[in-house]
């Protein structure tokens, strides 16, 4: 049987086989084909069941998105080059799935992945514009049309791909990967693994699975992993902080309260998180609202923090959130350096002792239940941050060069910020993708203090 199966690949999500047109704003995208890509060699019987870890169990059932934009080669004919790229992408994806075999499987009841080579949905689409026209001024809310699924679609599929062709012959590769199976590092690991196979790199990535042996699954009775997925309409806006602005914020939040020369400066991400959170509090609650409980949560990769450290190719949800409740008195008095320092200290506490307790599961589950209850009652207002900065997203060379830009898409979470390195003319800066309700995003866009450090796109 061919590894490419056209036709009924989407039966399990009941999608129509008819071609569809996704039109948002000024750009139209038409899906012209749907296939299923299976591993080029069958997964051995003893690998056909992958149990979830505790950290996988507690993750929200959403897709993580990433979209990589590649221009056409200067001396290539657009149509011919696009066809050849598509054929090669399918072939090498099939080969890549031998090592990344769980991604061709299906999620089973928040317990495991059935790794029986059901296959990866693979869509091909055409955009009615030039690639440069879109990447020059990308609209954050339009990026989802380059993806095969909405990020909040709850399905059993682990991985889906959409390859979008532009009039010029450039392409955008849209990837959706289930957050039940992968964190952001794992998503980038897969993309780079696929790219390495495509360019015939002999040092292609070989992922390690089996996280359940380190974080055994437990009974989640009384806890709903979907808590936090909002029903409100979320708007995503991309703001760019230049390298100069980042340096200025690090200096702004340097700790001059102790006798150090030079004074301790927060990291780039600590400074940006503090700035965005403080402006959120200022524009949405007002400085006088000291009774409101406003928290900051920051995703932390725990691979290097374990004892012994896990190798980088460990695949799964291997992160946790450092959480703080900043003092509103510090906000009122302008002591932002204290908030940045508090965030840094909370991140440092994600250490071997923390992870040892985390591996027991129950204590952390009870913490999550308590926090979910407060969230549901509206007693806390959380702002979450996650950073893909210094992740090798711009290293994904499939054989025709590295991407000129890498983007994300809107996620179904209120008050979530994703940091990514800037590409192109903004290289050296950091992009902040802010997901929030339309009213609060509008307040950011009308805040002079915030706008003095960013550029709008």
Explain this structure.
It is a single chain. The protein has 457 residues and is an alpha+beta fold. The chain has helices at residues 54-57, 78-99, 131-136, 184-198, 243-252, 268-284, 328-332, 336-348, 352-360, 362-376, 438-445, 448-451; strands spanning 4-6, 21-24, 27-37, 49-51, 63-70, 106-108, 112-114, 120-127, 159-165, 171-178, 234-241, 294-301, 319-324, 381-387, 405-407, 416-421, 430-437, 455-456. Helix 2 packs across helix 4, helix 5 (243-252) crosses helix 6 and helix 6 (268-284) packs across helix 8 (336-348). It is globular and about 60 Å long. The termini are far apart.
Tell me the strand percentage band.
15-25%
Largest sheet: 8 strands, mixed
- The share of residues in helices is 25-40%
Intertermini distance:
47 Å
Total of DSSP H or I helical runs spanning 4+ residues: 12
**Sheet/helix structural class:** alpha+beta
Contiguous low-pLDDT stretches (5 residues minimum) are 1-24
User: In sequence order, what are the helices and strands, one letter per element?
Assistant: EEEEHEHEEEHEEHEHHEEHHHHEEEEHHE
Give the radius of gyration: 22 Å
Mean pLDDT equals 88
What gross morphology would you assign? globular
Quantity of strands, as a count: 18
């Amino acid at each position: 049987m061919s590894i490419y199966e056209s036709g009924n690949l989407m039966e399990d999500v009941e999608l129509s086989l008819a071609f569809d047109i996704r039109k948002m704003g000024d750009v139209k995208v038409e899906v012209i084909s749907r296939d299923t890509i299976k591993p080029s060699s069958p997964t051995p019987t003893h690998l056909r069941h992958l149990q979830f870890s505790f950290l996988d169990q507690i993750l929200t059932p959403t897709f993580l998105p990433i979209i990589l934009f590649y221009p056409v080669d200067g001396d290539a004919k657009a149509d011919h080059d696009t066809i050849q790229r598509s054929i090669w992408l399918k072939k090498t994806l099939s080969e890549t799935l031998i090592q990344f075999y769980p991604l061709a499987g299906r999620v089973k009841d928040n317990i495991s992945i059935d790794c029986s080579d059901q296959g990866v949905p693979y869509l091909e689409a055409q955009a009615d514009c030039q690639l440069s026209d879109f990447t020059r001024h990308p609209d954050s809310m339009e990026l989802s049309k380059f993806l095969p699924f909405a990020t909040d679609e709850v399905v059993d599929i682990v991985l889906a791909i959409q390859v979008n062709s532009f009039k010029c012959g450039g392409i955008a590769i849209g990837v959706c990967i289930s957050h039940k199976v992968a964190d952001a590092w794992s998503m980038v690991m897969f993309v780079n693994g696929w790219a390495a196979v495509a360019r015939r790199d002999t040092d292609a990535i070989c992922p390690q699975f089996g996280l359940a042996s380190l974080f055994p699954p437990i009974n989640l009775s009384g806890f709903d992993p979907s808590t936090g997925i909002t029903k409100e309409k979320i708007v995503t806006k991309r703001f760019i902080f230049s390298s100069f602005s980042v340096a200025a914020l690090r200096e702004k939040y340097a700790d001059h309260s102790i006798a150090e020369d030079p004074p301790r400066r927060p990291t780039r991400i600590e400074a940006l998180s503090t700035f965005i959170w403080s402006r959120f509090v200022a524009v949405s609650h007002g400085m006088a609202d000291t009774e409101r409980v406003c928290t900051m949560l920051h995703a932390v990769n725990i691979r290097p923090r374990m004892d012994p450290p896990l190798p980088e190719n460990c695949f799964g949800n291997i992160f946790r959130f450092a959480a703080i409740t900043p003092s509103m008195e510090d906000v009122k008095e302008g002591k932002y350096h204290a908030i940045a320092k508090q965030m840094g200290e909370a991140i440092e506490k994600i250490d071997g002792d923390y992870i040892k307790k985390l591996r027991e599961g129950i204590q952390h589950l009870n913490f999550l239940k308590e926090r979910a209850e407060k969230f549901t009652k509206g007693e806390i207002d959380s702002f979450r941050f996650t950073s893909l900065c210094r992740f090798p997203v711009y290293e994904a060379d499939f054989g025709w060069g590295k991407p000129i830009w890498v983007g994300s898409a809107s996620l179904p979470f209120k008050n979530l910020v994703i940091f990514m390195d800037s590409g192109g003319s903004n290289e050296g800066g950091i992009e902040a993708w802010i997901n929030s309700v339309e009213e609060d995003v509008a307040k950011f866009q009308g805040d002079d203090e915030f706008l003095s450090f960013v550029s709008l796109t």
